[in-house]
Known about the structure:
Blueprint: H1 3-16, H2 22-31, H3 36-46, E1 50-52, E2 55-57, H4 59-73, H5 75-91, H6 98-123, H7 131-141, H8 144-153
Antiparallel strand pairs: 1-2
Amino acid sequence: MNxxxxxxxxxxxxxxxxxxxxxxxMVWLGNRGIPVSVLTRMETLWDVTKKxxxxxxRVGKIIILKIVEFIREHPNAAIGMALGASIGALSSxxxxxxxxxxPVATAIGAAYGFCVGAKLDxxxxxxxxxxxxxxxxxxxxxxxxxAEIFNTLKAxxx
Length: 158
């Protein structure tokens, strides 16, 4: 991707964020089981902008837009990951060892939940690939275009 194409893609993504309402998005994500701590961090991301060349892009909203698109395209993977993260939150309530268990339980639970959910997402499609190939494709696809745009324009980001 060259810089002109990347800038056009970024402008297109930025224009799609213009009518996004933070309250609606956060409520929608909350209803999908995303933990409140994640939603709080996403709220701080909401207003992040970066100057790219002579344009100012709403980078935070673009990232949130891509997360919402991912959840819509892979609902079971997102729900599985949220449920796995919830296990970590619950394990933090165990007396004495809870604070030690929580980070490990969160990481393992979220990863396992993502894998199980992604398998369910994969099984609902007619792809001939194995479930593990589907997991790899989903992981690669998540921010592929966005990463390519930012990598191409990184010299112009101020």
